[in-house]
Amino acid sequence: MTRTRARAVRIGVPVLAATTQGAVLVAVGLLITHPPAGWWDPGERGLVAWLAAHRTAALTGASDWLSALAFTPAVVTVTAFAAVALLVGRRWRGAALLSGAVALQAALFVTAAHLVDRARPDVVRLDGALPTSSFPSGHVGAATALYGGLGLLLLRPGHGWRRVVCALLWAVPVLVAASRLYRGMHHPTDVVAGALNGAAALWVVSRTLPARQRHRTGPAAPVRGPVALVYNPVGVDDALLERLHAVVTAHGHHPPRLLPGSAEDSGRAAAERAVAGGARLVAACGGDGTVTACADALAGTDAALAVVPCGTGNLLARNLGLPADPADALAAALGGHARRIDLMRAEGDGLPARAAATMAGMGLDAAVMASTHRGLKRRLGWPAYLLGAIRHLTDRQFALTVRVDGGPPVRRHVRMAVVGNVGTLQGGVRLLPDAVPDDGLLDLVLVQPQGLRGWGAALVGLVTGTRRPGPAAPLEHFRGHRIELTADRARPRECDGDPVGDGRVLALSVRPDALLVRLPGTVRDTPLEGAGAARTEAGRETA
Predict the structure, then answer these.
(1) In DSSP terms, which residues pair with 445 in a beta bridge?
(2) What is the DSSP code string of 341-368?
């Protein structure tokens, strides 16, 4: 099939599907309003009349609120905010799905309402005389497309809170449909047609959007030798272990060795036993703590690390371009290629030297992580940190001295300081835009906003990646091989999302090319995040 023909098919099929959807909607409406002789009467008038006769103040108030959720201004506002949030998180496909489905169902609703022109039920209608006809229900169609679409975007393997929120979102169209019947605005077939219109719009738009690209342009580098799974027994249950076991054997390997990590060392000893036992690939199945412990054990060896995200932050997996689902991430690593990346060495007063793979910091970020309960993180995932952030937004700035590569000291008053081997946070936010995990350099950002205006400028800088140079900037950046932070007094500190105790000093040094990791795709088509793929020329010159 030629490219032109393929493009025509990809565009023509959804257009044909949308046209068919509209034609069927109108045909069903005309069949209901102009039934042939002997047509079955569904008894719709009786249900609407019964509901109208049993109204109460409480139910009427609830129906007001539910109808408002699907009223045009609310739908437009929620769609716009959701689309912007998805675009900020670099999920353009999700933004296009929501906005496209809401727009398509609205266009078909207007067309069908005009052509069918069905009278509304003959009862006291709580919304008065609306200008559109009864068939189909625009409220239900919009609610199905919007809230149903939001539920679909959350419906993927992950934390239990996703399933709860998904169920609540999918319940909204059902409750909206009930409220429209209760308020006497529609017949039952109108709300059913509206729901089908919204659902069909979601399907058509999802089929229109191009599929997610899988990085595969050449042969992958297979893993040779035994595989071991080092896992956090708190975050990895037997069902997930079985899925990961099946992924390993499906890629032609012998059954992997299963090694639970301990709470004392987060899995470092288990990873060392795996390497001593001949494992050529160690899959770290847990959060950033488990991943870092395994990375420290494998540093300097020829054994490769596969990052299997099963925790709260999963920053390294995110920055290496791995899927969020643990089984998909392991499959991508086994079918991908190997590359060396840097690690960090963290130390300070009262802090024995330890490894860090993603970020380490002092101040606000460390305080938030220390105050967020582990149980809450397990239930909510990384959004649990937002609750902790609210409690600490009023924390005062503190005096900090920064020294990069032994250079002259730089003194600032900051809310927090973060040193990173990678740059992307949850939601696609680039805290350290130049950070690359294999450039031989560390990146530092000082967050020092002044007042509400400063916080606004900082947020804009985080979202857009733009920077304002100078010591007065809300976000100030530095780069180097060794970065030393010295506070005026003991402050909260963290490494890879784990609190490491208060202290005045936090020093980070880069360990270039320390770790061999498995990445998805091939060497040619999988650049790492940040300023470029592999080691940058700037990194070579200063290394």
Answers:
(1) 418, 477
(2) EEEEEEEETTEEEEEESSEEEEEHHHHH
CA 534 – CA 526 distance, rounded (Å) = 10
- Specify the DSSP class assigned to residue 412: E
Reference 430, options 389, 382, 463; nearest CA is 463
Q: For residue 139, which phi and psi values (nearest 5 degrees)?
A: -60, -45
The answer to whether 186 and 180 have CB atoms below 8 angstroms apart is: yes
What's this model's pTM, rounded to 2 decimal places?
Answer: 0.57
Name the 3-class secondary structure at 536.
coil
Q: How far apart are CA 517 and CA 532, in angstroms?
A: 18
Environment class of residue 283 by beta-carbon count within 10 Å: exposed (0-12), middle (13-18) or buried (19+)? buried
> What is the token pair recorded at 108?
């078909």
420 token code pair: 């990173």
Task: Judge whether 188 and 87 are in contact, CB under 8 Å.
Answer: no
The DSSP H or E segment spanning 214 is none
How do residues 488-530 score in pLDDT, each as one tens digit?
999 999 998 888 999 999 999 999 999 999 998 765 555 565 4
Beta-ladder partners of 478: 444
Q: Which two tokens stand for residue 134?
A: 């009864």
Chain mean position to CA 113:
38
**Integer Cα distance of 441 and 74 in angstroms:** 47
The identity of residue 403, as a single letter, is R
- The Cα–Cα gap between 235 and 498 comes to 16
pLDDT, one tens digit per residue, over 233-252 is 888 889 999 999 999 999 88
Tally of CA atoms within 13 A in the half-sphere of 137 that contains its CB: 33
Cβ contact 448:396 at 8 Å: no
Q: Are strands 493-495 and 410-414 parallel, antiparallel or unpaired?
A: unpaired
Phi/psi at 346 (nearest 5 deg)? -110, 140
Name which of 323, 294, 296, 319 is nearest 309 in CA terms.
Answer: 323
Residue length of the chain: 543
DSSP codes joined into one string, 107-149: HHHHHHHHHH-PPPPSS--TT---SS-SSS-HHHHHHHHHHHH
Q: How many CB atoms lie within 10 A of CB 345?
A: 17
Chain centroid offset of residue 392 CA: 24
